[in-house]
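USER: I would love a firmer grasp of how sequence relates to backbone shape in proteins. This is the protein in question:
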Amino acid sequence: MTTPLLDVRNLYLHYADQKGAVHAVDGLSFTLPGKGHALGIVGESGSGKSSLALAIMRLLPTNIARYEGEIYWQGSAISDLSDAQFRREVRWHKIALVPQGALNGFNPVLRVGDQIIEPAVAEGRLPKRAARARAQELLELVGLPVETYDRYPHELSGGMKQRAMIAAALILEPPLVIMDEPTSALDVSVQAQIMNLLKHLKKELGLSIIFITHDIALASDICDSLAVVYAGELVEIGHADVMLTAPQHPYSQKLLASIPRLHDRQLPEFIPGAPPDLRQPPTGCRFHLRCPLVFDRCRVASPPVFEPEAGQETRCWLLDPGDSEPV
C-alpha cells in the first residue's frame, strides 16, 4: 500500500473561552494520497475548516485548551517534532498556507517582493539574491509581471494580491499548499482566473492542494476528493464524483441541494436552523438538530464510520443495516 503524502489522525483543536472550551476541531482524520491530489474541505462557516488548517500548520493562538493528534508526512510523524523543528523542516518547506483573508495579509508598508521571500531568507534557506530571482520566477508563473516584486500591496488589485500570496506560498517549493477560501473576496471573473491558475499549478508542478471552502460547487472544479465537515467533525469523505452524485450523509445532501442549477427547475434548498454552539456540542450525531431524517438513536449515540461505497466513508446511523427505520 502506498504511503500517503499527508495522514491526519484524531486531530483535536479546542480554544479556551470564558464560557467553556470551543471544540473547533474534534477528532478529524483523513489522508491525502499523493502528488497532484486536491482534497476539498467543505462546510458552513463555523464548522472548523480554518481551525483545521491552523492545526495542521501549528499556527496556534495562545488560548488553546486542547491540541493533540497525530500528523504524518510520507510516513514520518511530524506531530512529534518540536516547534523549532517543525518551523525549520515542515512549515513552508513541506506544507504552506494561503490563509483566509489573504488579500489583507500583506504588510502595507513593505514591498510585495520582500514579503514573498521572507520565509526563504528568515532562516538562511536561500541567499537574498537567489530568493529574489526565485520570487520573480514565481510572479511570472502566477501571471504577474516581474515589476510586481517592487510594488507595495496597495498598488495591486484584489486578484493580483491573491496571485502574489500564492507565489509567496510556493517560495520554498512545498509539495502541499493549503488554500483557505482563496477566492472568497474576489468577483466571479477573477475567481475563475484564480481557479484556472490553481489547476495549472496542480497539473504542471504536481502540486497537492487542500482546498478549504464553503462552496461545494467551487471545490468540485478542482478537487479529486471531497471531505464534508460539520461542527468540528468530519461527517463524510470520498472521491469527488461519488460525493457529487451519491452523497450518503444528509448534511452533504443538503449542501448539494443548496447549489443553484442552470438547467434545473428545482429551486435551491436551504438548511434549516444554525450550526450548534461548539462550546456545548449536541450529544449523538451533531447534525441531528437540523436533520430531516433524524430518529432516536441519532440523538444519543455518535455514529461510527460506515463505508457505503469503496473509498467513501460516512458517519450516519442511516447506513447501519441493523438499525431501525428513521421516524
